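debug: dumping io for the single-chain case to check the tokenizer round-trip. Nothing else runs in this session.
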Amino acid sequence: MKRLAAIIFVLLLAFTFPQRIGAKDKYWEVQSIDTMKFSRDLAREKLNDKSFESVISNQVREIAETGATHVAIGTPYDNEFLPFLQKWVSAARANNLNVWFRGNWSGWEGWFGYERITPEEHVTKTGDFILRNSNLFQDGDIFTTCTECENGGAGDPRSTGDVRGFRQFLIEEYEQTSQAFEKIGKKVQSNYFSMNYDVAGLVMNKATTNDLDGIVVIDHYTSTAEKSASDIKELAEGSGGKIVLGEIGAPIPDIHGNLSADRQAKWLDSALSLLSKEPILVGLNYWVANGGTTALWEPDGQKRPTVDVITAYYSPKSISGQIVNELGRPVKDAAVSGNMKTTSTDRNGNFVLLSAPSLNRVVIKAKGYDEEIVEINGVEALEDIILRKSSESVLFKVEKILFNMFRDLFND
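debug: decoded output
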């Protein structure tokens, strides 16, 4: 009798054994850390300094170790700085990172004493730059033609009133760069026009956002994470696009005051925890890796506590498990939610859900079953989670009696 019960029990469960699967995604498509204080500000000073190459290498390696997908490089696009830019790009490739080019022509804002250039010159020079330097780029890179374009050229549309002209400039830049990247056979996104939040609110209407393929990028510092989240929701609604934070960081003394290293980490954890719940936010760039008040690393190279915080979100852990009913059968298409992230179980009842330091429970919902809340308590793999029918048919009740009977016999 026991042998027969065991055979029936195994047959009932044969197709329910879990097939563990890996994490399917990350919090953001673009996870970047900015190097502007070194890759732009020191571009002329360190241009021919061989010893600085080890500084570049170390910075980029440490950025890669956080789980970043991109390193943001602010080196100008002028011929003078091209050898310096190539050093940063080579370091990125050596560490399997894509590059977010966040430089500009020095003449746009008058950097390094360069003579100012017009929007028309900017468009032409940028297209030529891509065609002449195809070796700099690889698939998956991002190319920003001018960071915060409103700071140069024809001026800030909030002051000039020429909103239409500013929009047209962005569209022409995008058309020129898209054509150039197509010619060199590289899949590089060039619609990441970082701009001030208020400029974006003025310029990025739905028609312009559509012309730029649905991406709105803002360099935006707020005193609280709640303010940042509400701002991007408002901007997404007004523009109809997905949002990327081209710059985020703390402390900016005028906004956050002077924070200790521990309070800086606490602020960032609060911000990333809230922002990770926003599906409209598809990317962010932490400003800045080294130098400045928001730095992740100290001047002597020691990491601040914020490095561990950003690593927890850029290299997130995951919670896995299997969901079954009271007969041990897998529950397909159950919704598993935590920290506003939701995934669904596969045909075997398996799921993988991105975790975060603030995740402490998951909520499971499935049609025909009672909702189940499971406490996480730091675990990464949950034992089989059993859902109970909201309403049991007569047949199900009989099956459950037989199932429990065979299980008891099998366990004797």
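debug: round-trip ok. The radius of gyration is 26 Å.
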